[in-house]
Amino acid sequence: MPKRIDFTLTTEQDNELGHAIRADKRPEVRQRATAMRLLSRGNSPKEVAEVMEVSEATVYSWRRRYAADGLEGLANRPKGRPQRKADDAYLQELEVTLEKEPEELGYEFAIWTVERLRDHLAAVTGVHLSTGHLRVLMRTHGYVYRRPKHDLTNLQDQEAKAAAQAQLDELKKGRQQVITGSSLWTKPR
User: Fold this and answer.
1) How confident is the model at residue 26 (pLDDT cuts 50, 70, 90)?
2) What is the Cβ-side half-sphere exposure of residue 157, based on CA atoms within 13 angstroms?
């Protein structure tokens, strides 16, 4: 047998509901507060549903919402799309971050990936986006992802590079064609 739900109210809750019925500007709150008072006065959820012209499940839902959130739980919830997570502050931080190299921000990698950028922005702003959402956001704000060109200049020994360049320049200056023996690919003079 299902557990019986207790619909009794404290004096404070009953007074709060009575005030809401008389003075609240939101009609849905007045209707639902009336339903809560009817339940507390001994009416069954089925009877309250008939009086209010709603389903019995709706009455139970109102009761759960009132028990969880009080009077504000009886108000309509916002409809439509949720608020944007990526607000102006997030977009500003995205722009500032993309103008810097990851190494400037203390990271050991040299290239921003979407995952790395998302994790960094989440740590800085507290806003967590999916990588797909971040890609769309970047595209709509004019950012283009390009594959990096592999460049090893940061790993080169500059002294050895300069010495090799000097040696190459010397070889180019004193360039002589040296022919050693005959081969299939050269003609003897």
Assistant:
1) very high
2) 4
